[in-house]
Amino acid sequence: MEKETLRLLCKVNQLALTEEQKDSFLKFMDAREADIKALDAIDTENVERMVHVMPIMTVVREDVEKKLFTRDELQKGAPETMDGYWQVPRVVE
Amino acid sequence: MRYETVIGLEVHIEMATQSKIFCSCSAKFGGEQNDHVCPACCGMPGMLPVVNKKVVDLGMTAGMMLNCHINRVTTFDKKSYYYPDLPCSYQTTQWFSPVAVNGTVTIETSKGKKDIRIKQIHMEEDAGKLVHDEWTNTTLVDFNRTSVPLIEIVSQPDLSSAEEVVAYLERLRSLLRFAKVSECRMEQGSMRCDVNLSVRPEGSDKLGVRTEMKNMNSISAIERAIAYETARHIDALENGTEELVQETRRWDDIKGKSFAMRNKETAGDYRYFPDPNVMPIVIDDEWFAKIKGTLPEFPEVKKARYIGELGLSDYDATLLTESRALCDCFESAYAECGQAKEAANWLLSDVLNILNKKQMTPDQLTLDGKTLGKLIKLVTDGKVSRPNAKKILAEMFESEIDPAKYAEEQGYIVSSDTGAIEATVREIVIADERSVTDYKSGKEKALMAIFGKCMKALKGNCDPQTLRQMIIDVINSI
Q: What structural domains and CATH numbers belong to chain B?
């Protein structure tokens, strides 16, 4: 992984990593990339796609409306809010 | 050179559920900003989605209505894109195994019938709403719509004109409203349409450069957008006015033009991968049969039955079958009163009038058909006059009443004492010498004046035909 890619990932995910942590993470990612590339050698022709690692199915719930949280509770940790909206940097020109 | 237009549609339909697709928040349209939200639908870390069963029910229903194959194992996938209206930075949708695939919808245009192939129907969550605030130069985010359940119906590029697109959308709307999958109201955004369009020389089997148009909120806007975009493509090919590129364009209906929004993303850009938080949904035989058993009779089958078996006119049958709620009410009313034409008349005139005044659509009708049938029977049996029955109908929209009991309480039961009625008529006729003279000299209108007075005196409790004849008889006898 490129250093620049990691910098962007940290930015969008709001992660503050030290230089040491960044180096360690880049090494870790390079190793994983090598592991994944090893899989390319396997012939997967005619192998049915695995939808989940465990042979289990989802549970479903009934269509019942419930109000479990107030807006104020949810916005407690928000850096910026305005009139009940989350406020973010302008995304269009 | 002659050109042909090749169009494929992606239609998003908001499903008629109470709660959202992966959490229990309200799925209602509108509301105060961020009032229908919880940690799951606003993307707080660690929250896990739980699938709403009704969404799968409606997804299957839509698939069956559009003659699709239902995938018995259907899965959710993550579609990545970064934008503040999507709090998780991915949309949970279906890519690898959508709920329904390979269907057909038959449309009818001036050129006859045509089958439009459906590639797939997938279930997914809607995104939130962004408001761009000029004053603070920031973007404000409302997550009320986030995770409201949608189905996306993807057609093959089988459509070739605006007329076909309109016929296709109207057919989809009719089928899905009938099956109660959605209200499909374009003005509220519960039916949205993206148009993929390209142009190629007639007879060519190679597709031209495709553009996708968004932001169309009415069928007439879609027609205008297709006409504009087709002309733009042909102009570019014929006269080299611009280079066509694969892109997403925004339709501006006021300016009557489309504008480039962004280069079209391809599937690779979205990095689809199976969502590890939602396990596969397995639709067993019992679940499948249950949904199959709830499918309604198709509107055109109903219409033919109404005309052939019940003797309704083509016009009445067409109007009734535009709404499932009207059909349901009509059928219950007919079962109760046994008179199809009367039931249709009451629904299509009086009931629709009331709905109109209340600014409600026929699909919002909740009137009990059986009660309406009882009211119609009171009128056809001559027990309640039509004007009084209209008053009872108005009351039926306000509270749960039994028409016969209510008519009795209000004194609306037609008097069977003809002697008493005749005495009232005779009294009025004798007192209104001028109208009698006018009538006798050939002025038919004069009869109406006497009729009005009599009806008022009798409080409407008399059959109009009987009363009219009685007035004539009394006039002739004096």
A: 3-282 (no CATH), 297-410 (no CATH), 418-477 (1.10.10.410)
